[in-house]
Amino acid sequence: MKRQGPRLINWVATMKIIELEEVGSTNEYCKAADIGEDLCVFAKRQTAGKGTKGRSFISDGGGLYVSVMRHYENFSAEEAFKIMVNGCVAVCKTLEKFGIKPVIRWANDVLAGGRKICGTLIENTFSNGYITRSIVGIGINVNNEIAQEIKDIAVSMKEIAGKSLNFDKVKRLFIKNVQKEYKIDEYKSYIDWFGQTVTLKTADEEREVKAVDVTENGRLLVDWCGNMLEISAAEVSLRL
Prior knowledge:
It contains five helices and 13 strands. The radius of gyration is 18 Å and the shape is globular. β6 and β7 form a beta hairpin. It is about 20% helix and about 35% strand. α2 runs antiparallel to α4. It has an eight-stranded mixed beta sheet with strand order 1-2-3-4-8-7-6-5, sandwiched between helices. The protein is α+β, with helices and mostly antiparallel strands.
């Protein structure tokens, strides 16, 4: 059977929307297709989906796999966390419309019922202290079946809702939400674990701390034995 090529869906605002039947990685597709225009790429399936820290991302049929590529002028690298805020909040607002209560696990995972329902991979291009391009890869478990080996840590919208959802409605709402800008206060409104003890995990150790806040530049503020520390997502993994 002849494989279908990229299908241009429409234009929303100034962003070109493309849907693919199958692709290795939507992030990699954006890089290869970059001619300087903003682009939103959906795929029904990824064969080489990427997660954070080089992990693979399972991308079976029924999930929503999308990368949003934007180009910037005069966007300071110090404000990079705004990109993550926009991506995570867009996901949360989409889930809420389908009766699902989302929780953000700093810095970029979205949970529902204590299990991961969405992952985000952000790849920024920098030049002289500025961000010139961002590619935000997002995978939302919608109607896809969760592999048995990760059922204890991952969940789908279908499982929580108890029924299959209208995939096109989920996609259209996400497109609408992802083109908005959000404030960090909105991001923090989806965090319900401030004041609780969390585990910071590095390659060498685990440390129990009290979560206090997330700073404007995206660092996690924690209380460790009475000392206030600012933690970078690049340094640790967070376990709730």
